[in-house]
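Input/output pair, single chain:
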Amino acid sequence: MLTASADKTVVVTGASGGMGHAACDHLLRQGWHVIGVDHNLDRMQAQARNQANFHPIVMDLTDPFLTQRVLDTVQTLPPLKGLVNLAAISHGDGIEQLDDEAWEHSFAVNVTPAMRLIRALSPLMRENGGGSIVNVSSPVALVGARKASYSASKSALHGLTLSCARSLGPANIRVNLLLPGPTITFMTNDWSAARQESIAEGSFLKRLCHPLEVAKVLAFLLSDDSSYMTGSTIDMTAGTMFGH
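Output:
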């Protein structure tokens, strides 16, 4: 049985990644119409099978026509009420070896598309009486990392989130930031058991996070159950932030 979300649409970037796939599936089960954005054609095609309310957009986040493609798709669906900026890359090197291309590409993928989508979609949310935006960052935004380009680009999402929360709050558009801890994804599937155990040991829960756990928090932040939360940073690291 579908929930009250059945008359709402959400846009999710990074839709075919580990967390993105789980988020889309969970939101679909709740009755949302989901516009999934990702560049991985095979995964997106597989995800779209037997999912009538999943609307794939197979494009790179840096494509200059992405925003218009999303806007065109939104126009054919129920009112837009949500946006999850989840897609990201970890690109670059230590500061002494970091080149300009890696620095600029990190911001071009991790920050600029989020800004463009918020800028383009918030007027529709305003017309629809409000909505919820979730930017997904990383604990390295606060504590740093070897890859300065990744850490700095994730830090930029903090400023974007707070600025948008301040500007869009009067329109009943909430903007929050989520910091997931180490999560079992396609990337961690390639880790050795020893590496997974070592990273899990840094968690207060002594395990890695599951993508569905991230999906459930995203769904909460998109829902009316979090109606007085905006400009918030949600720490979902289970203590692993302190071990970085």
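DSSP finds nine helices and seven strands in the chain. Residues 148-168 form the longest helix (21 residues).
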